[in-house]
Design goal:
- The protein is α/β, with parallel strands linked by helices.
- The chain has 7 helices and 7 strands, in the order βαβαβαβαβαβααβ.
- The protein has one domain: NAD(P)-binding Rossmann-like Domain (Rossmann fold).
- α2 links the parallel β2 and β3.
- It binds nicotinamide-adenine-dinucleotide.
Length: 250
């Protein structure tokens, strides 16, 4: 099926690993120009090379999403290369487990800065570029932890991911007149480097809760992101789509 993403310019934050990497590869396979933006230049470069080797078009971009000046420079670099940004996927994120006793002020600030402020900053600097070109689509990455109670994730992670859902709804209503749709995905537990250190007891608890009895693959989240970014979702905005094997249903 043609998703209508051929020739579109897609910027993927956190594109160097896990869900972001799978999303970058999938956009490239659809014929999009893909900016692979990550804190780690080597990760961004590796994914961009992978795309190039498969005949796709990719630009590695080093960025710290938590720093306004860095995000501004990244957006300028993408526009300098390709002149526009049609799709933004805010996938960069960091995770923390623990109880409130474990979380200090610096932990709080760090996780909120990357997961929530980073999403805000990228939207802020990309929106004028999209608006100039008549519109676009933004897909944010929240989490099941931002929608329902979480036994493993810490308060800072949960608050950041709940915040991403609020930010999505607010921007969706503000930006609809500019032709920009803003949606969100809320993954359950996905097999990525973020989860390699979940202890075996924790994995068992999580698996028992999942009607499908398995963790998700990064490609399964990427597919939902591509759908929301594509013209197939042309009347969907402000929505948060669960991609969680049935663990949490609304
Ligand atoms: N894996 C899961 O089970 C799961 C579940 C729900 C939500 N999520 C969310 O999905 C997103 C991707 O997670 P993942 O599992 O692919 O993790 P991952 O660790 O594999 O990838 C995250 C990427 O974000 C990058 N990053 C971190 N801080 C950054 C910063 N300041 N600036 C730019 N890039 C930065 C990392 O370098 C890494 O490449 C995250 O937002 C995460 O919270 C993941």
């Amino acid at each position: 099926m043609d998703l209508g993403l051929e020739g579109k310019v897609a910027a993927i934050t956190g594109g160097g690993s896990g869900i972001g990497r799978a999303t970058a590869l999938m956009f490239a396979a659809e014929g999009s120009y893909v900016a692979v933006a990550d804190l780690f230049a080597d990760r961004a470069a590796a994914v961009a090379s992978e795309i190039g080797a498969a005949g796709g078009r990719a630009l590695p971009v080093q960025v710290d999403v938590a720093q306004a000046s860095s995000v501004m420079a990244a957006v300028q670099a993408i526009v300098a290369a390709w002149g526009r940004i049609d799709v933004l996927v805010n996938c960069a994120g960091i995770y923390q487990r623990g109880t409130i006793e474990d979380i200090g002020e610096r932990d709080w600030d760090h996780v909120l800065d990357v997961n929530l402020k980073g999403t805000f900053l990228f939207c802020k600097f990309v929106v004028p570029v999209m608006a100039r070109n008549g519109g676009g689509a933004i897909v944010n990455v929240s989490s099941i932890s931002g929608r329902t109670k979480s036994d493993l994730a810490a308060v800072n992670y949960v608050a950041s991911k709940a915040g991403v859902i609020g930010l999505t709804m607010c921007l969706a209503s503000q930006l609809a007149p500019k032709g920009i749709r803003v949606n969100c995905v809320a993954p359950g537990t996905i097999d990525t480097p973020m989860n390699v250190d979940i202890p075996p007891e924790g994995r068992e608890v999580l698996l028992r809760r999942c009607p499908m009895g398995r963790f998700g693959r990064p490609e399964e989240v990427a597919a939902a992101i591509l759908f929301l970014a594509s013209p197939l979702a042309s009347y969907i905005t402000g929505e948060t789509l669960n991609v969680n094997g049935g663990v949490f249903m609304v």
